[in-house]
Design brief:
The structure is a single chain. The strands form 6 sheets. A 6-stranded antiparallel beta sheet has the order 18-19-20-27-22-25, with no helix packed on it. Strands 6-9-7-8-12 form a 5-stranded mixed barrel. Strands 14-15-16-17 form a 4-stranded mixed beta sheet. The chain is of the alpha+beta class. The protein is 23% helix and 34% strand. The protein is built from 11 helices and 28 strands.
Length: 466
């Protein structure tokens, strides 16, 4: 089971709520979501259940398809209610057919570099789960980390070699406390991954959070199918308490077990954490994109936009996107989240939204934004079709620069080739389709008194976005 609900704001400006870190290829050519799903496949497990919000459903479906995972069950949360309701929903879904099935619960945005070590440890966790325990992985600390919770190891499980009772869970400590904890072999980082039988999870949720059990069970029972997705009943799910699985169950159950682990795990919770696990040059730098360095040491520099030159500095994080630049000392990387909050309070859309917005048919990005006009680039994947729609406040002019478009304009159907254009007056009913074998790219010029994305009246949509 893969939880894909976070926004990853500590990795701003790359990770934003419109396209968070799990959808980015930060370590390999694959995205973090793809790497997570493929780990489950490599372990020989069943197809994944992914729990996510509605806005990301098409991104997740496409990324899983690209990774060769075609049978995932994608469960849509009507609202963010934290990890306990999400895990309960997946457990109820599994329990409909196999109550004693063992779930491996993990976040979509963590990194693991030692798969052999992971699978050995997973086997121990599965053995513990089969005995009725809710097992988690305790990661051997490599430094005094204040961004993670900690687990204190208790006595060994008599029936599962390599696993231990949990003495207690600890919240994220201050630096002084963390320094003391890493010197004590009983303490490990809390990975946030759990392995447990579906029926055991549901039993413990019913014991400690009966409202979650009651409301989520009904939300699952009353779910409805929507294309390749399963929508939880919003009325029932939204009544569920907003609480993490750690607070709801892990810290309260008498059946918690911890398996000590060291398999190169990181939650990639900051740019500094990403620097730590990434390959470095001779000066300790990690670079990505169009970057030039001179006498820089131990820096993380990434550019997804303009050429970026960094000179004569140490221990910096520099991240450049098409619409934002972030510079921080590596020691302050955890504070990026505070800056995102400031930008949000200031009403800056860059805090949460990328210039490039992905849709099930492709993507669009704004090139120029004026007082009464806007210029966009629109990319439509082969075989995809936009909704039949109209606007009350703007007219549009489409110029095809690559591929071939079929444009519906009121009662007419028009083929528009490269270097040709079509005008869509205000109020006309229109639709754009790419019938070809290559991507369709066009330049859209909007004009009118209001150019917001909410000035779209959808009359028909193959993706059920009405």
């Amino acid at each position: 089971m893969i939880l894909s609900g976070g926004s990853g704001s500590r990795l701003w400006p790359v990770s934003r709520s419109s396209f968070p870190k799990q959808f980015w290829p930060l370590l390999t050519e694959r995205t973090l979501l793809q790497e997570t799903a493929l780990r489950g496949k490599a372990a020989g497990l069943g197809q994944p259940i992914v729990v996510c919000n509605e806005a990301h459903r098409f991104i997740i479906a496409e990324q899983l398809r690209e990774a060769g995972i075609d049978e995932a069950r994608i469960l849509l949360e009507p609202s963010a209610r934290n990890s306990a309701p999400a895990i309960a929903a997946a457990a109820f879904l599994v329990a409909e057919q196999a109550p004693e099935a063992i779930l491996w619960v993990m976040a979509a945005d963590a990194a693991i570099t030692d798969l052999a070590g992971l699978f050995d440890t997973l086997g121990t966790a599965v053995d513990a789960a089969a005995q009725g325990y809710i097992a988690t992985f305790g990661i051997q600390p490599s430094k005094a980390e204040t961004g993670y919770g900690y687990i204190e190891r208790g006595n060994a499980l008599s029936d599962v070699p390599g696993a231990f009772h949990v003495a207690r869970f600890m919240e994220k400590p201050d630096l002084e406390s963390a320094t003391a904890l890493v010197q004590d072999e009983r303490y490990s980082w809390n990975s946030g991954m759990f392995v447990a039988r579906a029926d055991i999870l549901l039993r413990e949720i019913a014991t400690f959070e009966p409202d979650i059990h009651a409301h989520v069970s009904k939300a699952v029972a009353q779910r409805r199918s929507d294309l390749d997705f399963e929508r939880l009943d919003p009325d029932m799910f939204n009544r569920s308490p907003d609480i993490s699985i750690d607070y709801a169950v892990a810290e309260r159950t008498h059946h918690a077990a911890v398996v000590p682990a060291s398999f190169g795990w990181s939650d990639i919770g900051s740019w500094d954490a990403l620097w730590e696990i990434s390959p470095k040059d001779d000066e300790g730098n990690v670079i990505s994109g169009d970057v030039f360095l001179d006498t820089a040491r131990n820096c993380y520099v990434r550019s997804d936009g303009a050429v970026t030159a960094v000179m004569g500095v140490d221990d910096l994080v520099v991240v450049v996107t098409e619409d934002a630049v972030m510079v921080s000392h590596r020691d302050r990387a955890q504070d990026v989240k505070k800056m995102v909050s400031r930008l949000t309070d200031a009403g800056r859309v860059e805090a949460t939204t990328h210039n490039r917005m992905y849709r099930p048919w492709g993507f669009y990005e704004s090139l120029i934004h004026g007082d009464r006009f806007q210029v966009k680039r629109i990319h439509v994947d082969p075989g995809q079709v936009l909704s039949l729609q109209k606007h009350y406040h703007r007219a549009e002019h489409w110029v095809v620069v690559a591929g071939t478009a079929v444009v519906t304009r009121d009662d007419a159907e028009i083929i528009v080739r490269e270097n040709e254009s079509v005008y869509l007056p205000l109020g006309c009913t229109h639709r754009l389709a790419n019938p070809g074998k290559i991507a369709l790219t066009l330049i859209e010029v909007q004009s009118g008194p209001y150019l917001g994305e909410d000035d779209i009246v959808r009359l028909d949509d193959i993706y059920a976005r009405m």
